[in-house]
Amino acid sequence: MWVRRLACLILLPLLLTGCAPRHALAPKPSAGEPSASAQPRLVSDRCIRVIDGDTIHTRRNGPIRLIGVDAPEHDEDFFTEAQQFVAQRVDGKEVRLEICPITPKDRYGRYRAIVFFRDGDQWVNLNRLLVAQGMAVISDYRPCHISAEEEWREDEQHARQSALGVWAKSRGESRR
């Protein structure tokens, strides 16, 4: 009797592994490694708190880091303006998150995403709007999927030339 049980314990895993589909045994990409189908994940959520100009907190997905932008920190000029700019558009409202498919979370555990908010019947890219209004500068947080980089650079150049937001005090020089 014990020989039968021993044989089952040895043979069962071998049979199960041999019967598994090939894709189940294929190596999975490690974190930060792009997969063959790296498509951004679009999810709906509700913003419940604005932390600062480039971080919000949502009901279901928790903290969200806006990728591709860098807004002023607590001790920098225009911190309050950037935070209020974001709050006016998303605080307490539905948002859509285009979560980075390559590295979905940063080292602090926040999802990395492009955030969209509703303006009338259209969804507006908040990350790009922050750059266009001078409330944030472009920051390269690769790897990710941002494909509109050229337009963002044009928006940033216009904000700089127009001395908007973070560019106002320094007359076109970067705040950093």
Question: Topology of this structure?
Answer:
Blueprint: H1 2-19, H2 22-25, E1 41-52, E2 55-58, E3 62-66, E4 69-70, H3 79-90, E5 94-99, E6 111-119, E7 122-125, H4 126-132, E8 137-138, H5 149-161, H6 166-170
Describe the structure.
The protein has 176 residues and is an alpha+beta fold. It has one domain (41-167): OB fold (Dihydrolipoamide Acetyltransferase, E2P), CATH 2.40.50. It is 34% helix and 25% strand. It contains six helices and eight strands; from the N terminus they run H-H-E-E-E-E-H-E-E-E-H-E-H-H. It has helices spanning 2-19, 22-25, 79-90, 126-132, 149-161, 166-170, and strands at 41-52, 55-58, 62-66, 69-70, 94-99, 111-119, 122-125, 137-138. It has a five-stranded mixed beta barrel with strand order 1-2-3-6-5. A two-stranded antiparallel sheet has the order 4-8. The protein is globular and about 35 Å long.
**Mean of residue pLDDT?**
80
Helix segment count?
6
| Strand element count | 8
Termini separation? 75 Å
* Shape label: globular
Which regions are unreliable across 5 or more consecutive residues at pLDDT < 50?
12-36
Keywords:
single chain; 176 residues; alpha+beta; OB fold (Dihydrolipoamide Acetyltransferase, E2P); 5-stranded mixed beta barrel; two-stranded antiparallel sheet; 6 helices; 25% strand
